[in-house]
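User:
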Amino acid sequence: MSSNGPGYATPLDAMKNGPREELLYVVCIQPNQAEGKTDLLATVDVNPSSPTYCQVIHRLRTGRLNDELHHTGWNVCSSCHDTKGCCDVPKRDKLILPAFNSDRIYVVDTEKNPRAPTMHKVVEAEEIHRFNCSTPHTTHCLASGEVMISAMGDNQGNGKCEFILLDGKTFEVKGTWTRNKTGAFNYDFWYQPYFDIMVSSEWGAPRILKRGFQSTDPDDQKIYGRSLNFFSWSKRELLQTVNLGFDGVSPLEIRFLHNPKQPQGFVGCALNANIFRFYQKGDGSWAVDKVIDIPAKKVSGWDGDYINGMITDILLSLDDRFLYLNNWLHGDVRQYDISDPAHPKLTGQLFLGGKILKDSKIKVLEDKELKEQPDPVYIKGRRILGGPQMMQLSLDGKRLYISSSLYSPWDRQFYPETIEKGATIVKIDIDTEKGGMKLDENFLVDFGIGPDGPLLAHEMRYPGGDCTSDIWLAQD
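Assistant: Predicted structure:
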């Protein structure tokens, strides 16, 4: 890590000079809270030379019920690197854990003992409820030293597009970010001050999401989102909303290209399994194009005649060459070459579970991509259940870690076997030269075992930062 501040000078600096990851911090949801067990942050050893390789070596329990830990973020990242005094928070040593259901925000200290983090502070729900905000989701640090967290709902669980600001030292809630008009829904966000822009995505109204999925939900634009919202970063006000149409229902993870001078990025739209590219036009406004369209499969034995892929996570390699996505229901992970961002090319595909396996009750009648239904996957005798969900890529782009839990009500609905047997994390080895992916059959983290019983493993972070939490600022 550079002496000029936390993080790395550029994305390529992180890619070329960042250390190999040795630990993963993994948020784990406890599906059996009737037994008094709670969610936790698991520390996983991913150092191949370690005697505890692939094992959970520490568990930091929240000690509170009904949290549903989901996404996490750091107190500072590479946006605070070499900012010439703008940022007065010198260390990346606090991991922020918003709780999707309870509206609490946990602040975890990772500096004293990275292998065994401790609880630093708990921000109670009342602190964000004061601003009529609930369902905190994405966390990003700001170059100002503050921490910003997207809020998906109001205090009644209706859809809302707001952002909570925390003081970067005390982690007290300072207020909200937006001024004047804002969007209808919220989920993920990414900012790029060089173009005076922040873009946010939309899932839906939390009160609807929390009851599980119903097939008619996406048709109702009052409860499910389908737009991208573009804000002026300096003025904190909404500039433009772009409706993606039915193909873009539930745009979730949103990623700018890592190069801070590139005014473009991608968003994964869950329910109809499409990827849209967003980009700035010559007149300063923003446009979107659908660049990846994964066809639904005609089936029997399912609730409908077709089953979509459901893209629930995407990420970009630090050199902006490869885009990765998952299809949580189809069960595959894909790699695309995005050297030409307007025309992604499929360069790798692997199946890791899903609903359409050969021994499934679902029979594929028509498939525009596959000639036969895929085989189940076993690693070290353990069947990989559920579908591929959250992803985290190593800084050098050579290792892709994949967990299998989406959100406990949806896990229970679509993959009840993961509630009984727990989630997993697997690793895919990446060919960074030609493209391509290969499953590491010697790597498995099994969350079905251990003192907390079966756990649902979701998002992953490295102690030194990663390609989904770090944002770089242009230096001129």
